[in-house]
Amino acid sequence: QVQLVESGGGLVQPGGSLRLSCAASGSIFSINIMHWYRQAPGGQRELVATITREGRTNYADAVKDRFTISRDNAKNTLYLQLNSLKPEDTAVYYCNADIYSDNRLRNYWGQGAQVTVSS
After folding, report:
1. Which residues, other chains included, contact 92 with Cβ-Cβ below 8 Å and sequence gap of 6+?
2. Which of 8, 9, 11 is nearest to 119 (CA)?
């Protein structure tokens, strides 16, 4: 069974940095496109950043030039470097991926990692 597990969340002051990781495990043949989403309290889940298997990236305007998405295909791991954090970045961050497993392509979600930006 495939699982995505996020780590690296926490409490940080405005202007600080965090690095989120998302490790995929299980019977994985390959991982295609991967995303980071976030959901603020009382808000809807929104797309933060996307990375293809080849490394092409795309970002939401709100995080462009502050966040960096990357991946290590050999380790089946996705990363999000969060810099210059603002209170409005406070949210639960979720990883999402299209994964080939057991001859089928399925979409998977992680359980979420809380990021709180506060002084």
Report:
1. 38, 39, 112, 113, 114, 115
2. 11
Contact 47/37 with Cβ under 8 angstroms? yes
Helix H or strand E encompassing 90: none
**Residue 27 pairs with which residues in a beta bridge?**
none
Successive 10-residue mean pLDDT values, the chain, 119 residues: 96 98 96 98 96 97 98 97 98 98 96 97
pLDDT of residue 18: 97
Q: What is the largest CA-CA distance in the chain?
A: 48
Provide the pLDDT for residue 6.
96
